[in-house]
Design a protein that fits this description.
The protein has 212 residues and is α+β, with helices and mostly antiparallel strands. The protein is built from four helices and 13 strands. The model has no long low-confidence stretch (mean pLDDT 92).
Length: 212
C-alpha cells in the first residue's frame, strides 16, 4: 500500500548525463548554455509525456568537475534554470560554483591548476499536487464497537489467551486498544501482544507502544 501511495504522490524526475570534457579556461558559455537548454528540453519532454498531473516542472543542472590531473570529480550545482527555452549562464557563475563546492568538500582550493568540466547532468522534476493524507483517515462515522469482530484464542508466552479481533481499517482515529488483540486487514495482520497498546492517529496510522 505504501509503495502504491508513493507512486501517486511522489514527484516525477528524469535525469540524463552528457559527457563534455571542456576546459573552464576559455569556456564558450553560449555553446554550453545552448547544450544545457537542449538537454533540459529533452528531459522536460519525458516528464510531460508521463501524462500525470503536475503543478510545474523544474530543471536542475550539475557539472561534474575537477582539477586537471585528478581522478575524482565533484558535483557542482549551477544556480540557473531553463526559462523561456533558454538557460542564463556566465563563466563567473561556473567558476564560483566550482570553487564553492570544492572548498566545501575539501576545505581548500588549488590555485594555478586548470579546471575541467567532465559531465553535464540535467534533471527535470515534475512537482505533483499536494496530497492531503487526511483523505486516508478512517470514516468519521466509524466506531470501535463496529470494528470488533469477536475474539480468538491466541498463543502468547507459553499460554493460550483470549484476543480481541478488530477490522483494522474500520478502527476510528483516536482509538486505543490494549493487547492481546489481532487487527485484520486485506493485506496484513497486526498482532498486539498483551504488554502492548495500539493507537490509531487522526490519519489512520497505527502506533504500537509498550503498555505503561
Amino acid at each position: 500500500m505504501t509503495s502504491a501511495l508513493g507512486c501517486v504522490i511522489a514527484d516525477i524526475r528524469h535525469d540524463q548525463v552528457q559527457t563534455l570534457n571542456l576546459m573552464l579556461d576559455g569556456l564558450d558559455v553560449n555553446r554550453l548554455s545552448a547544450r544545457m537548454a537542449s538537454e533540459a528540453n529533452a528531459a522536460l519532454a519525458v516528464v510531460e509525456a508521463a501524462g500525470l498531473p503536475i503543478e510545474r516542472i523544474e530543471t536542475v543542472f550539475e557539472l561534474d568537475m575537477h582539477y586537471v590531473g585528478q581522478t575524482h570529480t565533484v558535483a557542482v550545482p549551477l544556480p540557473t534554470q531553463l526559462r523561456d527555452g533558454a538557460v542564463a549562464l556566465a563563466p563567473e557563475m561556473v567558476r564560483s560554483a566550482f570553487e564553492r563546492t570544492y572548498q566545501t568538500s575539501f576545505s581548500r582550493l588549488l590555485p594555478g591548476i586548470p579546471v575541467k568540466i567532465v559531465n553535464l547532468r540535467t534533471a527535470a522534476i515534475g512537482r505533483r499536487p499536494r496530497f492531503d493524507l487526511a483523505a486516508l483517515a478512517p470514516d468519521a462515522g466509524t466506531s470501535l464497537r463496529e470494528a470488533r469482530r469477536g475474539t480468538r484464542r491466541v498463543w502468547f508466552d507459553g499460554a493460550w489467551q483470549e484476543a480481541a479481533i478488530y477490522d483494522r481499517l474500520a478502527m476510528p482515529g483516536g482509538t486505543t486498544i490494549r493487547g492481546p488483540a489481532v487487527l485484520e486487514q486485506p493485506d496484513a495482520t497486526t498482532l498486539i501482544d498483551p504488554d502492548l497498546v495500539a493507537r490509531v492517529d487522526r490519519l489512520g496510522n497505527l502506533i504500537v507502544e509498550r503498555a505503561a
